[in-house]
Design goal:
This protein has helices spanning about 1-15, 60-75, 95-105, 120, 145-155; strands spanning about 45-50, 80, 110-115, 120-125, 140. The protein has a single domain, classed as Purple Acid Phosphatase, chain A, domain 2 (4-Layer Sandwich), CATH 3.60.21. The strands form two sheets. Strands 1-2-3 form a three-stranded parallel beta sheet, with no helix packed on it. It has a two-stranded antiparallel ribbon with strand order 4-5. It is an alpha/beta fold.
Length: about 160
């Protein structure tokens, strides 16, 4: 039975791998739309991310707030956040986490783009197959699509 359960998990993960990632787009932070110009040959942009809280009930991290403050004081042309913007990992409470993240990012006077990470699209599970250190016991893609749907609704385009 254990090998059947593990096989079903592997098949489900393979199906999830074929799912389409949410597209990257400018987030609704109140900043003006990015207006690329062919005449611009030099600009500065910032890539940051993975500054999520350590637990779903914790507030945004001080490093994230410090980065936002610095970028607000010295704005680049745009910012790309490389995911793990929320603790996530569970559908419950994730919409509020997105709202808190976006509220902090509203201090940026420049366009913000986000690429979702595993905390946005992966769920924590407790699947009893393999060893204690088996990564399958910790998290799996959310093949139901509910995490991606919540991400899409919360982080929809500007």
């Amino acid at each position: 039975m254990r090998s059947l359960a593990c096989s079903l998990i592997v098949l489900s993960v393979a199906a999830a791998a074929n799912a389409q990632m949410p597209p990257a787009h400018q987030l609704r932070t109140g900043a003006a739309r990015l207006n690329p110009s062919a005449a611009s040959t030099k600009f500065t942009f910032v890539v940051a991310g993975d500054n999520r809280p350590a637990k779903p009930t914790y507030p945004l991290t001080q490093p994230l707030l410090d980065i936002v403050a610095r970028l607000a004081a010295q704005p680049p042309a745009f910012v790309v956040w490389d995911g793990d913007s929320v603790f996530g990992k569970r559908q419950s409470g994730i919409a509020a986490q997105y709202a808190e993240f976006l509220a902090a990012m509203r201090k940026l006077p420049v366009p913000l783009f986000n690429a979702p990470g595993n905390h946005e699209l992966v769920v924590q599970t407790n699947i009893p197959c393999g060893t204690k250190d088996d990564p399958w016991n910790a998290e799996l893609p959310d093949w139901s699509g509910s995490m991606a749907a919540t991400y899409g609704a919360a982080m929809s385009p500007a």
